[in-house]
Amino acid sequence: MKLNADGAMKVYGSAGGIGGGLSEPLDSCDKSHLVVESDCKSTLEWISNPSSCPTSFRSVVQCIVKVSDSRYIVFKFIPRNENVEVDRLAKEVI
């Protein structure tokens, strides 16, 4: 199973949104493995090195790390032009 994810924030952090999209219908995919793709290098770095994460996001990142350590989850960087639809969803929320 593959999940594309992206986030967006307004200037000064007054509002934010998260978008995500699965590569195939949930009822037809292999749920034993998950690949999370994102175009946000900072977020992927925070997940691989939580001490580099800003304090304001640390609890969320620690939760992601805890969940991903107990399952087969791979985090992967992809260019923004391969994540356009999810980027649009994240920005639509704010």
Automatic annotation (TrEMBL):
Residues 32-92 form the RNase H type-1 domain. InterPro entries: RNaseH-like_sf, RNaseH_domain, RNaseH_sf. This is RNase H type-1 domain-containing protein. It comes from the Eukaryota.
